Amino acid sequence: MNLKLRFKSVSHSWVALHPQPKGVIQFIAGAFFGTFFPMFFYRYLLQSLYEQGYTIIILPFNFSFNHYVEAGFLMREQYEILPELVRMATVEGYDYEAYLNDKNFSWIGHSLGCKYISLLEGFTALPPETQAREQFIRNLLSDTSDESQIESIIADINILVEELKQKIKEVQKLIRSYVGREVKINSIFIKGQISILLAPAITSTASAIRPQFLADIIDNLGLGVKPTIEETHNLIKDSELFNIMGLVCFQSDNIAKSTCDWFFKIFQKPQPDFRESLTGGHLKPLGIQLGNNVLNLFDKPLIESVEQRHKGFEHHVIKLFKKLKEKAK
Hints:
329 residues; alpha/beta; Rossmann fold; eight-stranded mixed β-sheet; three-stranded antiparallel β-sheet; 10 helices; 45% helix; globular
């Protein structure tokens, strides 16, 4: 079946509906490219994943130093899109079975997008009871001396959790109205869903603001990146999750190097079978097909054959994805 990747705008996101989907891949791109035309910049990667039999969702985000807020937006957006997948499939006469179980949803991120996926999975570990949840957050932010900031984060997360609980009920009811069947969509955040992190970049304010003294001023004013590198690492470690995660790093990538090293040497996940170290730089995942060649927009070589590009990158991602799906069974 020769399938052409066509995206439609749904809520704030873009969806390429597969006629016979095995599942859904939700993609969160890097900082600049995740905001402006990710369906163009990552087209060859997304086409390759689509051809494996997956509906593709590109979730955008705003440029912000408050990654808590954007992670909340991404989670709300997932539940806005979910019933639309079923409705659109029924209208088109496509198979919708995969959309009725949240275990069929997966995540792939690039660069900063990987931090958002990490936050969503880390939030999965939040205790259901309000008091225990607040203590979990306080432990996470133990190095933060600003009590008002801690209280603000606790309040925002409590609101988000309650909102998502209600949203799940609404989604279940709406999908039942479309197909007349029960659905298995129960997990807040992304519990039990596999993820692949491509060149993950969990970085500080200084990575976005130069020179260093300006970044220091922004941090001292309390306007810097939230959560910090250390807080994000703590959330990942304290969650005791990330057991069905894959990691792809690039040998010439200095931007993601410290994050990749942290996963390999400190967190010690994923296991070696679920890691890939490939040639290329931080922007290797970007690329568009031009006939029988792929234009590597910001990597070397600038142009290479479809066969060579696929062999050097997409093949590894697809193979890793299949292994993770087997592990998750």
